[in-house]
Amino acid sequence: MHYNLTDQYRHQTSFLHGLDPRVKVITAVGYILAVSLTPEGAWWAFAFFFLVLCLAVYLSQLGIFFTIRRSFIALPFILAALSVPLITPGPVIWRIPGLNWAVSEPGLIRFLSILLRSWLAVQAAILLTAVTRFPNILWALESLKFPRVLVSTIGFMYRYLFVVADEVTQMVRARASRSARISGAPRRSVLWQGKVAGAMVGSLFLRALERSERVYAAMLSRGYDGCIRSLTRFQMRQRDWISLGLAGLLLIVPLGLGWMV
Amino acid sequence: MWLSPVKLHIPDGFLSTPVAIVGWVFALVFIAVAIRQTRDQLGDRQVPLMGILAAFIFAAQAINFPIAAGTSGHLLGGALAAILLGPWAATLIMTAVIAMQGLLFQDGGLLVMGWNILNMGVITAFVGIATYSFIRRLTGEGRRSHLAAAFTGAWLSVEVAALATALQLAVSGTSPIELGLPAMAGVHALIGIGEGVITVGALILLETTSSGVLREGESAPGRRGANVIAAGLLLALLVALFSPLASSHPDGLEFVAEQKGFLDLAVDPSYEILPDYTVPIISDPVLTTIVAVVLGTLLVFVVAWFVGRNTTRSEAAGD
Hints:
The complex is a heterodimer. By secondary structure, chain A is mainly alpha-helical. Chain A has two domains: 15-132 and 235-260, no CATH class; 147-179 and 188-221, no CATH class. Chain A contains eleven helices and two strands; from the N terminus they run H-H-H-H-H-H-E-E-H-H-H-H-H. In chain A, strands 1-2 form a two-stranded antiparallel sheet. Chain A is flat. The model of chain A has no long low-confidence stretch (mean pLDDT 87). Chain B is mainly α. Chain B has one domain (17-318): Arp2/3 complex 21 kDa subunit ARPC3 (Orthogonal Bundle), CATH 1.10.1760. Chain B has helices at residues 17-42, 46-60, 78-85, 87-105, 113-139, 143-171, 177-209, 211-218, 223-242, 252-258, 262-265, 285-318, and strands at residues 64-68, 71-74. Chain B is globular and about 50 Å long. Chains A and B meet through helix 2, helix 5, helix 6, strand 2 and helix 7 of A and helix 1, helix 2, strand 1, helix 4 and helix 7 of B.
């Protein structure tokens, strides 16, 4: 898995960017929960949730295709669910030509529902990180009573993520630039190459450990007392409350109807 | 990315909601204990050390080496972190890594993150360290045995994490256990070799440059209790696997059986070992499944806890 290590936050001055991060985190998680709870085959409920997402993307001013373009990240995992149409019992609607495997109707409905849920959920998560600065997401999680130490640790990790990732990029480049092979010479064994990769990991560990000592000493010398204080403060304003209420309504109504119909 | 299709970061939508929530409950318990254990040992240094080492694991996962035919070996890191720093510190570090991958890069879902943390953080850490120390105890203190133990621990950690993932997908009705389990086990038996080789390579380097790091790790928190917890996790997994409820669509098999060709792909259903076993009262198959899994897990943990306490007592009495 290769990550795009540029900042995932896309700056804009939209309505969505200006909301309290807590509202955005609650709404995104609520959206994923609602999509996850939507019964299989409730197509119009899924369609409604898609429209809700489109509305949010529109409000973010990031361009209407912003989330769709990045939404195929979870695609490889579909392999795990590929057998669902073949193993769910029910009336056969199609046979795979050549193999003569039967595809059942409930199986296909279940498969498409899994796909839709995953596709909508990942877009909600993409939008959340695009319109909220990562430290503000962490601040929201902390004020929503997530374990403080864990949130601080993730925040610390975020701060040094790009530094350490840079080190790795350099190491990998250095390895690549020294890995020319004389044509005709035997290829080095897989085990040897694995050992080299392992040594890179080991030396990266030592560097990280040393860095953490230096950072800790620097923090102590600046008065660190074991508690990380953040300057980030948000107050829930009227429009935050209204947005939260509206978002809740937009999620609960289709979900309720989806179960009733 | 396409070359390792059966990766372990479960996206949202692939687990049913009750399964996902049960995962979060378990994950939060482990996170809470991990935070307390590392705070006792590290004090003020807890946040900077854990944070930077989490960045290390995240970055180290990008280091790979070619194995064969386009596949590459790379690191998950839970077992290595547990061997170097103890299982609780590893749990905390891996939790931060998985949270970052899910929150910032959308690799792995948010609602299902509890299971991602349990699979790739808790299970890899505890299975890794328990296997490592168990083999070391069996084989003695030599350098070779140390590396063999690390390799086995790293390999098994990935394998068990993959089995657990297959099980969660099966319980959610996303991937039948008869297909998912062998597929996951097979692919990750190979991926685990890469994990083992890199882990051993890292330990060799650390041994030759600074043995102090390794010795420091020996006193890491949770080393002694790790065996008990790992055994508990493994037993819980076995109970769940052999539970007839592991498949939420048992009647689906008869349907499969009617399919020519497809049947050959499916191995014998493991749950026929315990036929006609259901939890009465609750009739909904999904709910029964969750209840059975939770009950089985709790039962095993209680047993493991009693066993662990008695061994500790007898050790104390022996001193």
